Amino acid sequence: FAFSKLPSDSFKYLGWCDIEEHDVRGNHLHCPRVREAGPSEEELFFRGEAHTMKKRKQTTDTEQRQKKLQENWENCAELNLSFQDLGDLYQVENFKRILRRLIRVEKLWLVDNSLTDLSAIRLPRCRELNVNKNHFTSFKQLPKIPQIQHLSLAENNIMTLSGISDFRHTPLESLILKRNPCEFQERYRQLVFSSLPNLKMLDGIPKLPEDCSPPDTSFFFKMCTIL
After folding, report:
1. How far apart are CA 152 and CA 139, in angstroms?
2. Which residues face 108 on adjacent strands?
3. Domain residue limits at 37
4. b vs e for 124-134, b when ≥16 Cβ sit within 10 Å of the residue's Cβ?
5. Is 66 a member of any domain?
6. What are phi and psi of 40, to 5 degrees?
């Protein structure tokens, strides 16, 4: 049984910037695919998919400038860059290049991108950041987010709460750390709330009276609450 090719088959390894005769800009896209182009021409040849890749041409400086203008990431307010399948280092570097240009983004989703360190990235206006299902091991590896209000870090590999106090002077109200090793630390909730006095909600649960108890006096710390 032979599958017939779809009309779009010849475009599946192209970014939208590489498709001719359109005026779509980066800030028009809510869920763009931003990783660099797909397999090499040699690999496509061995796959029997050489027809899917247009021959790469040398781009002039003018064409590169035009492509950068077309991306227009600087004007994005809300952007979903999840599930990018960043399988190669050059794709990760291109991804970080785009993140550095998000100077106006307020809501950003970066779910399941195998990210390990974004500490060199600054998102000056970001109020809501979702980096669930990545490979962060420390709060120190997160981007600079001075205006953050809602931060979701579920299903990473954050071992301890070291570095969490860096968010003490931000307007952070809601934090999700579910399914991180640090969640099993003794006095977990009390330690988080004592480090972040402005925090109102942790792991979807509002701040409780026992969360405000001094970490060395409350008998509640001897208990294990399973939710």
Report:
1. 12
2. 79, 129
3. 9-208
4. ebbbbbbbbbb
5. yes
6. -65, 165
